[in-house]
Amino acid sequence: MKRPQKIAVAVVAGLFLYLSVFTWNLRTGYLDALSSYTGLDISGFILRPGLWVSDKVVGFWDRYVYLVALKQQNDILRQEASDLRRENMLMAARARSAERLEKLLDFKPPSGWEAGGARVIAHRMGPAGVLDTLDVDRGSASGVEPDMPVVTPNGVVGRVLVTGATASTVLLLTDANSRIAVIGDQNRSPGMLSGQGYGRPLQLRFVNLNAVIDPGELLLSSGLSGLYPKGVPVARVTKVQRSDISLFLTVEARPLVDVGGLEEVLLLGRGPVPEGDGAAVDGEAADRAAEQ
Question: Following CA atoms 221, 114, 165, 161 in sequence, which dihedral angle do they give, to the nearest 10 degrees?
Answer without folding.
Answer: 0
